[in-house]
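Justification of computing resources. Each target in the renewal requires a structure prediction run like the one illustrated here; the chain below, 467 residues long, is used simply to show the kind of job we budget for.
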Amino acid sequence: MSSKFPDHFLWGGAVAANQVEGAYQTDGKGLSTSDLQPQGIFGAITPRVDGDSGIKDVAIDFYHRYPQDIALFAEMGFKCLRISIAWTRIFPQGDEEAPNEAGLAFYDRLFDEMARYGIQPLVTLSHYEMPYGLVKQYGGWGNRKTIGFFEHYARTVFERYKHKVQHWLTFNEINMSLHAPFTGVGLAEDSSKSEIYQAIHHQLVASARAVKACHEIVPGGKIGNMLLGGILYPLSCKPEDVLETQRQNRDWLFFGDVQARGGYPAYMRRYFRENGIQVEITAEDQQALRETIDFISFSYYMSGCVTTDEAQNNTARTNILNMVPNPHLASSEWGWQIDPVGLRYLLNVLYDRYQKPLFIVENGLGAKDRVEADGSINDDYRINYLNDHLVQVAEAIDDGVEVMGYTSWGPIDLVSASKAEMSKRYGFIYVDRDDAGNGSLERRRKKSFYWYRDVIQSNGNSLKDKA
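Resulting structure tokens:
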């Protein structure tokens, strides 16, 4: 296909500190909420004791092996790499006044290595983790004081890296707090809706304060939000299904509405009122929220359906969001439905709604890869998945949607977020480690490595439109 991607399109990949770095107690790092979730974000919260271990403690040892990994990303031609800063490397307990210099120095080295290859960092401030000290001492995001601790952290890293990082994100998949409160806001899983939405409100205020700080500190810096783009379709054209679909889509679009428009939408005020949800929103909070993001970023893995038929809802296949499956779509090995056209639809929905640049910062296929006798890994299923989604991105750009870039999720195999598995592989680069933590950690190029290199080199011209 002829390229529809702009000349300065940011091609690359995305990782998260708690899924790749390892070194979980190295150089003064404190315990994070992720360290207490050894089985992933839907697993039990497990206190750490001396001598225990979890797969994320080492992960893929990116903390020590990043020069090799950055070189491999550069070989593919990456223009951009999305990473996250581990908040606990900078403020181990979260409430310190002075930052941990060893943690700051690690990210200096990482950004300098990326700069050697001309790879731009896209940095997430909080990616599914926060200092456990803030949960233990203050009650996580349920406590208004956490806003100040986060702002202090954000200002610290903006000052430190203002000449090295131009693109920032505040909270990863901020709407996920509705489904995994401990992961998102440091609250117990059985917290009330009022408690969860109050914590979310504090996080939204903190996000807006970080946006303001970025605009003040980082010359020419741009900062966005990050949504889990779980777009939903009505299962039927029954008006009740269509209306319920709108309502459920607003459950997550609400976060974008606040961050991109600067205040709470009327439909949420009605939702709070009718469900007895109490959220303290001060005049100072309302003023803070007016500082809006520069661009919208989001993840996209799958779509789902909505029905008002309770029998169908009760038999819905369980996946990360308990979506009703679409009878017209195939599914991955993990039950995630594959819908490339949904990405074009979502891009149009978000651009129509916000009229801000969009950045696809996660998209990919988790699958079990097989190493052949000759050492090759022929992951054509991954190539087909990514090709078909990128063709739809090109169509959205042709529709008039302003898309800044695309960073595939897990360009190197990493520990999956949902269940802390290595066997659920996303990468173009294979890492020799299994779910039990065995393996040499050797890196190996998959077939998709060369395919993605060609896509980037051709600025999308090598994609195959199967229509």
